[in-house]
Amino acid sequence: MPGRVKKRSPLKAPDRPFIALGLEGSANKIGAGIIKHDPDGSTHVLSNVRHTYITPPGEGFQPRHTALHHREWALTVINDALKKAAVSMHHIDCICFTKGPGMGAPLVSVALVARTLSLLYDKPLVGVNHCVGHIEMGRQVTGAHNPVVLYVSGGNTQVIAYSQQCYRIFGETLDIAVGNCLDRFARVINLSNDPSPGYNIEQEAKKGKRLLPLPYATKGMDISLSGILTSIEAYTTDKRFRPNGPTAEDGDDVITPQDLCFSLQETVFAMLVEITERAMAHIGSKEVLVVGGVGCNERLQEMMGVMASERGGHVFAMDERFCIDNGIMIAQAGLLSFRMGFETPLAKSTCTQRFRTDQVHVTWRA
Amino acid sequence: MATTPEAQWHNVTMRIPFASEKHANIAKQVIDVDRELQPDVVKRTLSVEGNDLVATFTTLTVRLARLTSNAFLENVDLVVRTIGEFGEDAEHVPIPPPAST
Question: How open is the CA angle A149-A153-A156, to the nearest 5 degrees?
Answer without folding.
Answer: 75
